[in-house]
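lol ok so funny story. i was supposed to be doing the assay writeup but got distracted and ended up predicting the structure for this chain instead. priorities right. anyway since i did it might as well share w the group, maybe its usefull for someone
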Amino acid sequence: MYVYSYCIECKYTVVPKEILTNVKHSFNVINSDFNSPYKFVLSDFYVRDNKMFLDIAYVTNDATSEYLQDLNKLKKGS
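and the output, tada:
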């Protein structure tokens, strides 16, 4: 499974909705320009204490796809 977690400290106040829109757009651009059957997916995103947390999945196998499906089920249940 290929999932990467990042924490980015922000010097200024972060507006999560704006950041999320920009990140999603960037992933769309990357996935459309990337000449591969695989894709990058933002699997989790949140901002706390001016730190931005991102989990990025590189979907190359069934295990990663199943992990993302499980995450979606959990998000819908909460």
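Residues 12 and 50 are 7 Å apart (CA to CA). The mean pLDDT is 86.
back to the writeup now i swear
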